[in-house]
Amino acid sequence: MTEFKGLGEVSGKRVLVRSDLNVPLDGTTITDDGRIRASVPTIKALADAGARVVVTAHLGRPKGEPDPAYSLAPVAARLAELLGAPVAFATDTVGASAQETVAALGDGQVALLENVRFNAGETSKDDAERGAFADQLAALADAFVSDGFGVVHRKQASVYDVAQRLPHAMGGLVATEIDVLRRLTVDPQRPYVVVLGGSKVSDKLGVIDNLLGKADKLLIGGGMVFTFLKADGLEVGKSLLEEDQLDTVRSYQARAKELGVEIVLPTDIVVADSFGDEASARVVAATDIPADALGLDIGPESGKAFAAALADARTVFWNGPMGVFEQPAFAEGTRAVAEALTHVDGLSVVGGGDSAAAVRTLGFDESAFGHISTGGGASLEYLEGKELPGITVLED
To answer: Cα angle vertex 314, ends 309, 316, to 5°?
Structure first.
C-alpha cells in the first residue's frame, strides 16, 4: 500500500492520526478496549505503508491541564499489544517529549501523544487559542488523518483546526461510520425500526424529530420511556421523568399517528424500591407502576414484543439500553433487544455509547451485528441532521 485515501505516497511522512481512544478505566486497567481495537486498522495500514504514525487522542474530561488519572499511558500499552509492535509514548501533547518522540520515529513506527485535552487549547471556544494549539500539533506532522468518529461532532483543535493546516484525509473507521449512517437516512431498506433507550428523552429529541418521517416503527425503552408513559396519563412512581418534555412527547405521538409511524411502548416494567436494589426487583404492568416504585428495565413481555417488532426489519438503528444493564436484575430488556438485532436480515446498527458497552458487557459476539458505532453522540447528531464539523472540514 503506497497511497492512503488521497494523501498520495505516505512512506517516510509524519502522519498525525486523530483516533478515539476514550476507553473506560478502573484505575489503570482498561475495562473495555473496543475503541482501541476499532482504531487499529487505520493506524496499522499507515504504518504498513511506511508512514511515521503520530496518534493523538483524548481520555475523559481533564480540565485543560495534566492529570495522571486521565493519562493515555495504559492505552499506549494496549495499542502496542494489538498492533504487535512497539508504540512510543510522549508524556506531553506538543512539548519537548512529543517533539523528541516524533523526531525519533522511523518509517512504519507508531507513537502516541499524551492526552490531547491536557492542553486547554484543544477544547477552547476561542478560535485563536484553539488555532494556536492546532499550529503546534500540525508542526509535528506532514499530513493528517481523521479517524476518531466519536469526536467529529466537536469543533476542537485536533479534530477541526488541524485539518485546515495539513493535507488531510478521512480514516477508514470514520469513512465506514459515515457510510453506515447514510444508509440509515437515505433510502433505507424497509421495514425500518429505530430502538431508543437511555436515561433522558431530551437527549433523543432531535433524533425522534428527524426519524419520525423516515422510520416505520419506533420502540421506546430505558429511562426515557417514563416520560412517554406519563404523557399517556399513567403513574410512573419514582421513575426518571422529564416533566418539561411531556408536551413535546405528546406532539411527537400525534405526529407519528399522522405519518403512520408506530410508536411501541413497554407493556410491563421491572421496578424496585430504590436504584440498585435488586432484591426488591419485580415485574408490574406499565399501567400499574406503584407510586413508591422506581422503573429500572422493560419487562419480559415487552422484551418479547420488541423482539417481535424487530423480527421482519431490514434496517435497525438502536441507541440506548432498555434498563440498568450493569445490574443483572435490570439487564434482560437490553439483552432481549441485543439478541433480536443479531437475527436481523439486513442492516443492524448499534449506535455506540452505552449500547455498544452493553453488547460487550452482556457477552455478545460483536460480529453478529451489522455495525457497532464508536461514537454515540456523533451518531445521534448525524441522525438529527446536524452538521458535523470534523466531517465538513474534510470535504473540501
So the answer is: 65
Q: How many residues in the chain? A: 396
Phi, psi of 141 (to 5 degrees): -145, 165
Contact predicate 191/333, CB 8 Å: no
Q: Give 347's strand partners.
A: 315
Q: Confirm or deny that 355 is annotated as ligand binding.
A: yes
Quote the cell numbers at residue 103.
523526531
pLDDT averaged over every residue in the chain: 94
pLDDT digits (tens, 9 = 90+) for 131-175: 999 999 999 999 999 999 999 999 999 999 999 999 999 999 999
Active site residue 303: no
Q: Assess whether 148 carries a catalytic annotation.
A: no
Tell whether 67 is in a known binding site: no
Which of 13, 35, 155, 183 is the catalytic position? 35
Does 182 participate in catalysis according to the annotation?
A: no
Torsion of CA 348, 352, 354, 360, to 10 degrees: 70
CB 62 within 8 A of CB 10: no
For the full predicted model, state whether its pTM sits above 0.70. yes
State yes or no: is 200 an active-site residue. yes
